[in-house]
Amino acid sequence: MHTDACILRLFDKDKKTLVVNASYSLSDKFLKKLSVLNAQECVCAKAIKIKRPLAIYNGNNGKNLKDHNHELIKKEGFRSMLFAPVMLRGKTLGVIST
After folding, report:
1. Is the pLDDT of residue 55 over 60?
2. How far apart are CA 29 and CA 23, in angstroms?
């Protein structure tokens, strides 16, 4: 599978946040703005909740993304995204997205 960008976020269970741990080919502005996400409100949260990958096609239309992230995502050039929970023995460790 080819990807233009990728990000690994690890789950901080005390703060209920997803924190960037590693990334590939993302701008500093994008990483700074979205380095910590509320694990209950972000798109990633649905993938965690259903415990399986979640695909968003044509994300630039804004219907599946929060308004405050939409413009930044559009500037990065993303159209479709895939969010996959990182699990170990039934526990959520984080989310990898591309």
Report:
1. yes
2. 13
Write the CB contacts of 8 (distance below 8 Å, at least 6 apart in sequence). 20, 21, 22, 23, 86, 94, 95, 96
Q: How many CA atoms lie within 13 A of 93 on its CB side?
A: 8
CA distance linking residue 35 with residue 28, whole number of Å: 10
pLDDT tens digits, residue range 67-92? 456 677 777 777 788 999 999 999 98
- Asked if residue 97 lies in contact with residue 10, where contact means CB atoms within 8 angstroms, the answer is no
65 Cβ contact partners less than 8 Å away, ≥ 6 residues apart = 43, 56, 59, 73
Q: What is each CA distance from 19 to 2, 31, 63, in whole angstroms?
A: 24, 10, 24
Residues 6 or more apart in contact with residue 39 via CB below 8 angstroms: 11, 12, 16, 17, 18, 45, 48
Burial 36-55 (b: 16+ CB within 10 A, else e): ebebeebbbbebbeeeeebe
